[in-house]
């Protein structure tokens, strides 16, 4: 399989916001190349005794986004045919918009072609077990240590394109779920991915979970992770579709049905999602969001309040934000 690579030269401080912004135009996931020193935790997770000398951090970062190229030489983005010129034009437009309020460095875009990237397996060498407070998150290919057997243990494999729980936004959501999940909780997870949040909710005692996602790959990923954690099949249902604008999905999910809605997506999706999703929530239900860069916090809080919800809590981890509200 061939892929077009769109490589952006920027600065490290702009990495997250560029990734978030380009997600909104259908460029999902990024390969990041920079010289930022590893944290102590990252060094531990590499499980090597001697680390190679790293170059001095010069503040420069390269972000590479990959778009599938079919046999006819057409580029496929979000299931639709597009062109190299169209993508470059949109990327440059978004970068220039960002440049108006922050330093993005050079902001140049290079295009290259690559083949046969092993997306599914390359990341496994980097994913090791870790803790979210008192929860152990561990991949299927590692063994649980004897001293951890009394903990809550989440066995998770992210599949082709989904998170492992290491990201700050997932951890922010999990901490909020621990506060609000009860034995009779009906939970809706918008943007389910690998199913981490729904599975954790069930492990915390929730009664039932419904997940929605745009990517059909979420269905087998969730099924595998349910099985790995001994989750009863009937306790977690998946639906594929866009709940923001698809009435059939909204009807299938149901109205005034959920005690908790959790959405770990991005600010650009949360803003249009929020006025829609309130109709799925019971009176008194809790809305837990994350995926929000700190520069987007006010935008999401305003959308939550405009939808008639009461903000209960705004929590932070690194440069990421979680907004929790009640209907």
Structure description:
This protein is an alpha/beta fold. It folds into two domains: 98 residues, ACT domain (Alpha-Beta Plaits), CATH 3.30.70; 159 residues, Rossmann fold (3-Layer(aba) Sandwich). The protein is 29% helix and 31% strand. The protein has ten helices and 16 strands. The protein has a seven-stranded mixed beta sheet, sandwiched between helices. Strands 1, 2, 3, 4, 5 and 6 form a six-stranded antiparallel beta sheet that branches. The radius of gyration is 20 Å and the shape is globular.
Brief account:
The protein is α/β, with parallel strands linked by helices.
Write the layout of secondary structure elements.
Blueprint: E1 2-11, H1 15-23, E2 31-34, H2 40-46, E3 60-69, E4 75-77, E5 80-82, H3 84-99, E6 108-115, H4 119-122, E7 130-132, E8 135-138, E9 152-155, H5 168-180, E10 186-190, H6 196-203, E11 208-213, H7 218-228, E12 236-240, H8 247-253, E13 258-264, H9 267-277, E14 281-293, H10 297-306, E15 310-317, E16 320-326
Helix pairs in contact: 5-6, 9-10
Quaternary structure:
single chain
Strand order of the largest sheet: 12-11-10-13-14-16-15
Q: What would you report as the Rg, rounded to the nearest angstrom?
A: 20 Å
Helix content: 25-40%
* Computed structural class: alpha/beta
Tally of discrete structural domains = 2
Helix count, DSSP H or I runs of 4 or more residues: 10
CATH architecture descriptor text of the largest domain: 3-Layer(aba) Sandwich
Q: Could you name the ranges where pLDDT drops below 50 across 5 or more consecutive residues?
A: 42-53
Overall, the morphology is globular
Class of the largest domain in CATH? Alpha Beta
Distance between the termini: 47 Å
- CATH topology (level 3) name of the largest domain: Rossmann fold
Q: Return the average pLDDT rounded to an integer.
A: 85
CATH superfamily of the largest domain: Vaccinia Virus protein VP39
Number of strands: 16
Describe the main β-sheet briefly. 7 strands, mixed
């Amino acid at each position: 399989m061939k892929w077009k690579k769109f490589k952006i030269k920027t600065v490290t401080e702009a990495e997250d916001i560029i990734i978030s912004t380009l997600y909104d135009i259908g460029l999902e996931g990024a390969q990041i190349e920079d010289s930022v020193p590893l944290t102590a935790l990252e060094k531990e997770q590499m499980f090597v005794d001697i680390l190679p000398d790293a170059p001095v951090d010069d503040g420069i970062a390269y972000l590479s986004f990959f778009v599938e190229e079919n046999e006819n030489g057409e580029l496929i983005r979000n299931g639709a045919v597009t062109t190299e010129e169209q993508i470059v034009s949109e990327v440059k437009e978004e970068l220039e918009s960002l440049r108006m309020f922050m330093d993005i460095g050079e902001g140049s875009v290079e295009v290259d072609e690559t083949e046969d990237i092993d997306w599914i397996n390359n990341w496994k060498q980097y994913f090791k077990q870790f803790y979210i407070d008192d929860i152990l998150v561990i991949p299927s290919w590692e063994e649980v240590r004897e001293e951890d057997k009394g903990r809550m243990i989440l066995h998770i494999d992210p599949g082709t394109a989904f998170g492992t729980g290491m990201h700050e936004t997932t951890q922010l959501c999990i901490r909020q779920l621990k506060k609000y999940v009860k034995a009779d909780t009906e939970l809706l997870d918008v943007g389910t991915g690998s199913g981490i949040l729904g599975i954790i909710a069930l492990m915390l005692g929730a009664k039932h979970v419904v997940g929605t996602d745009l990517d059909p790959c979420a269905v087998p990923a969730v099924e595998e992770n349910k099985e790995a954690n001994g989750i009863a099949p009937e306790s977690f249902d998946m639906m594929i579709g866009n709940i923001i604008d698809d009435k059939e999905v909204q009807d299938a999910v149901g109205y005034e049905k959920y005690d908790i809605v959790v959405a770990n997506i991005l600010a650009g999706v949360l803003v249009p999602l929020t006025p829609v999703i309130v109709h799925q929530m019971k009176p008194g239900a809790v809305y837990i969001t994350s995926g929000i860069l700190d520069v987007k916090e006010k935008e999401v809080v305003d959308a939550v309040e405009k939808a008639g919800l009461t903000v209960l809590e705004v929590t932070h981890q690194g440069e990421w934000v979680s907004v929790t509200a009640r209907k």
